[in-house]
Amino acid sequence: MANHLSSLSIVLFLSVLFGFQIAGPAMSYEEPQYTVVSETDTYEVRRYKNRTVAEVTSESDNSGFRVLFDYISGANLGSQKLEMTVPVTQSEKIAMTIPVTQLNTNGKMIMRFFLPDQYSTKNAPKPTDRRVRIIDLPEQYFGVISYSGFASQSNFEKHHEELRRVLLNDGLVITGPPVKATYNSPFTPPFLRRNEAMYPLEWN
Description:
This protein has about 200 residues and is an alpha+beta fold. The protein has one domain (about 1-200): Alpha-Beta Barrel (Multidrug-efflux Transporter 1 Regulator Bmrr, Chain A), CATH 3.20.80.10. About 25% of the residues lie in helices and about 30% in strands. The protein has helices spanning about 1-25, 60-70, 155-170, and strands at about 35-40, 45-50, 50-60, 90, 110-115, 135, 140-145, 175, 180, 195-200. Strands 1, 2, 3, 4, 5, 6, 7, 8, 9 and 10 form a 10-stranded antiparallel beta sheet that branches. It is globular and about 50 Å long. The termini are far apart.
């Protein structure tokens, strides 16, 4: 019995150690700068500064990721390689009107890679794939809830629905669809992963 417990402890220790080795480098990746302007037990309200993204609209997660990864790996004029950043974000493509409304357009998804801070639409490498768009995003506020576990759709839906409920209960105005943000590779153990569900907000 003692030998079994000792072996189990070693396996658990190695699993945790290996997990930190995998997850650790992601912690040093650049991510968009933000300021927390309000915080509760459930969520944060963040103000994100202007940032630049590479964006693809696609029918599936995998195709969008592949196109964007190719872009930062050199599928651009000059074959320039860009540093990977976090998070990778996904949201439903919507049509915008005044007042703000949301419309699901045949299930298409927008996937974004944030470019390193030194880039903007003026100096980012031009994509060779026409599906990739380089966009400067304005300063924006988001309500954000963080969670661990798998970056599955069901896990995301559970948390963005909870976030939506508490934001509305607190009287905040949501201005767009939920955004899924993932920070770790699929090889990171679920309990070490950082995932976020985000809603854009009107903030005064």
